[in-house]
Design brief:
The complex is a heterodimer. By secondary structure, chain A is of the alpha/beta class. Helices cover 29% and strands 20% of the residues of chain A. In chain B, 49% of the residues lie in helices and 9% in strands. The chains are: A alpha/beta, B alpha/beta.
Chain lengths: 395, 356
């Protein structure tokens, strides 16, 4: 989620609206959405005034100009002039920020379903909170309705989305019916689906455009339960995976490559190939150096170049089982060349950075780059630019 | 088969509880009475969709009588073809003497015609091993590679039917077959190392059981080899049999495994006395020898084969060809698995995966 500096007057906290400029307002306006009309000059100001005289109560001005902002009773200040038409924005003026909840040009879109979680993973990039946050579901529904240009894919994440219970299905239905070509990927620990009633209430007759991304950190309970710091989690996640398969869902298993997982990765992959051969793919993911990962540095910091052999063995084992391995969040220069075909252009747009070494690299444009948080954490290995021309290797 | 029996058989087939069924037409050569095949294709297709069943049609044929018109009809119903290729021209023609001495050539023409109209994956082939075949394992595999038939099944000569009376001449003693199998297997590995992904069917069945948790659904090593439970055979004599082997027994005069007349209901067939006997003698957990066997969990006795070999369903399991061959194959593949280099292991794992 992008965040930019701003302020607002006369609007409720977490007011959601779509940014629109004066040339497009006539075409886009509908009565049941909120609009943030770009107002940066006298002409645009008069456009706003004429709309308000016409009785449109769902149009508020947004401006990059402090003078205009101060003139108006109801207005949003976009201090950094960072917003674009089509952005769906949450205005939290009192905090001094604007949150861009949806941007059309982004490839990675996220709906935060809740910030509560039933696990407590040692490398969690976004430590959970415990307070009630149903408002996130309401906000998610509003964002879905305010999107002008349907995304190709939206990720639902948390916290743990299954803690929202039936509300998750309501959110899914809103996104799937409002955006008929959109695919939804839900990131969940799957534990809730160990409860058959919850599994039925969410999965029954679900349109086939949803896939489920479920982390599994062990081939046995002691390892998985350690990584997620929750006794009993392994059994529930396995039950959840089987429930998903029962409902004919598309499943991706995700392994975050902390040292404890890397040590056992061949056994974990063997377990998956043997016992969960129905999953579509398995993501092998570099750890994001933020959140709890900073506190558990000895588990989470690693040089992935030291693990070439394990990563290679794990990938081939998956390929043999007909399961696609997808390597994420590890820059190409840290991977051996033969694994590049499995490497994804991962890391969300708003979290991805490139560094000095990437400038002279010939494959930077198809590399996942680094997490921005590496600056306060660590790098995933020793970076060295790939110089030679590499053509036509599929990614 | 009479048109009335065709209709009745089709209706019984659709009563089978499975959601995904395979309907295979065998003969003789079904293409000699394609009018009856079409009648069945039409009737089953018409009635399967509203019962939410997925039906895969297979026609087993020499393809000698295949014509473009027949292809067009097959295409309409999504039929795939199963033919016989025993090996190179000389061997195939020796096994299958016809007047023109050109069984091989005519099948090759049929395969080409089928591929032209129905697509490159529309034809599969099975081979029959004879005493003559035993000297040509490499040539047989090479023939399959040449014809781009990348699934080969190295089966021993069956002790049934027409071939039985001459099996002393045609059939192979177990040890001779094993030697043949090993050489052919080696050749298959050779081609895989060359990048030609040819797969041996018998090994795939065993590897699926050893290495994969989703059963590929092959009936060969299931309880009673699936006779009557996974398979039902509607024969031109107007009777229903629990398997092709049981039908072939009837061909030689032993009709004891008949389940009933075509038109009998599925529940009548299930209650027929041969079914109970097959269940009793075809279940590994009910057999002392199988219960002691390392491979008991993967395999089971084949009472129909036992009857063909010894005249009784309850012949001592350990004496049957089926048992000896299965144990040998499990042993062989476990040794190959243990010794496999990474490339071979990868290939074995690939073979173990269920095909859709």
């Amino acid at each position: 989620m992008r965040r930019t500096i701003g302020a607002s007057n006369g609007l409720p906290s977490r007011h959601i609206g779509r940014v629109v400029d004066s040339s497009a307002i006539a075409a886009e306006w509908v009565p049941d959405l909120n609009f943030l009309l770009t107002v940066n000059n006298a002409e645009e100001l008069s456009c706003l005034e004429s709309l308000q005289r016409g009785g449109l109560t769902n149009v508020a001005p947004i401006t990059g100009c402090p003078t205009i902002f101060r003139q108006l009773d109801v207005a949003v200040l976009d201090t950094e002039k960072a917003l674009l038409p089509g952005d769906v924005v949450a205005v939290s003026g009192s905090q001094g920020f604007l949150h861009v909840l949806y941007r059309e040009e982004d490839k990675h879109h996220t709906v935060f379903v809740t910030n509560r979680c039933s696990s407590n993973c040692i490398m969690c990039s976004q430590p959970p909170t415990s307070h009630e946050d149903r408002w996130l579901v309401d906000e998610g529904l509003k964002v879905g309705r305010h999107i002008r240009k349907s995304p190709a894919v939206v990720g639902f994440t948390g916290g743990e989305p299954l803690l929202a219970g039936r509300d998750l299905r309501i959110l899914l239905d809103e996104m799937l019916t409002g955006h008929p070509d959109c695919l939804v990927e839900v990131l969940t620990n799957g534990r809730g689906f160990a409860n058959p009633e919850l599994a039925n209430s969410i999965l029954q007759d679900l349109p086939p455009r949803v896939s489920w991304m479920v982390p599994l950190y062990g081939h046995a309970d002691f390892l998985h339960d350690f990584v997620v710091q929750t006794p009993g989690a392994f059994d529930e996640t396995i039950a959840g995976l089987l429930a998903l398969q029962d409902h004919q869902q598309v499943i991706q298993i995700r392994l975050v490559l902390v040292n404890e997982v890397l040590t056992e990765i061949e056994a974990i992959v063997e377990f998956i190939c043997r016992n969960l051969p129905f999953v579509a793919n398995v993501a092998l993911m570099g750890c994001e150096p933020t959140g709890f990962a900073l506190a558990n540095r000895s588990s989470c910091e690693t040089d992935y170049a030291d693990w070439h052999q394990s990563l290679t063995a794990a990938s081939s084992r998956l390929v043999d089982a007909g399961i696609r391995p997808i390597i994420m969040n590890i820059p190409l220069c840290v991977l051996p060349r033969h694994l590049w075909s499995h490497a994804a252009h991962s890391i969300s747009d708003w979290k991805r950075v490139y560094v000095e070494e990437c400038r002279s690299c010939s494959v930077a444009d198809r590399c996942c780059g680094l997490f921005a948080s590496h600056e306060k954490g660590w790098r995933p290995g020793r970076l060295s630019p790939i110089r030679e021309e590499v053509v036509n290797e599929p990614i | 088969m009479s048109p009335e029996d065709i209709d009745r058989a089709c209706d019984s087939i659709l009563d089978a509880p499975g959601k995904a069924l395979t309907v295979e037409f065998q003969g003789g050569d079904p293409l000699l009475r394609f009018d009856l095949v079409e009648r069945a294709l039409d009737r089953i297709s018409m009635r399967s969709s509203d019962r939410q069943k997925r039906i895969q049609f297979v026609v087993a044929s020499t393809l000698h009588q295949l014509t473009p018109d027949i292809c067009k009809s097959l295409k309409r119903y999504g039929v795939v073809l199963s033919t016989s290729i025993d090996g190179p021209q000389r061997l195939h023609n020796k096994n299958r003497p016809i007047r023109g001495k050109n069984a091989y050539e005519r099948t090759i023409e049929g395969i080409a015609l089928a591929r032209e109209h129905l697509g490159p994956g529309s034809v599969a082939a099975l081979m029959t091993t004879t005493r003559e075949s035993l000297s040509y394992p490499e040539e047989i595999v090479d023939e399959y590679v040449k014809l781009q038939l990348l699934d080969i099944s190295l089966r021993p000569l069956s002790p049934f039917g027409f071939a039985n009376s001459r099996s002393a001449v045609l059939g192979a003693a177990p040890q001779e077959f094993f030697t043949f199998y090993e050489r052919a297997f080696e050749r298959i590995l050779h081609w895989n190392r060359e990048g030609i992904q040819i797969r041996e069917g018998q090994a795939a069945i065993v590897l699926n059981k050893l290495l994969h948790s989703i059963d590929a659904g092959y009936v060969d090593l299931q309880g009673s080899c699936g006779a009557g439970t996974a398979v039902m055979v509607y024969n031109y004599d107007g009777f229903i049999y629990p398997s092709d082997e049981a039908r072939m027994l009837a061909e030689t005069g032993d009709t004891s495994l008949r389940l009933g007349r075509i038109g009998a209901s599925l529940s009548e067939l299930k209650a027929a006395s041969p079914m109970l006997a097959l269940a009793k003698h075809g279940t590994s957990s009910l057999n002392l020898v199988c219960r002691e066997c390392t491979y008991g969990g993967f395999c089971s006795p084949d009472p129909v084969m036992a009857k063909a070999q010894f005249g009784r369903l309850d012949a001592p399991v350990g004496a049957t060809d089926h048992c000896n061959r299965s144990i040998w194959l499990f042993d062989f593949l476990l040794i190959r698995l243990k010794e496999a280099d990474p490339v071979t292991l990868s290939m074995f794992r690939n073979w173990a995966r269920p095909r859709q």
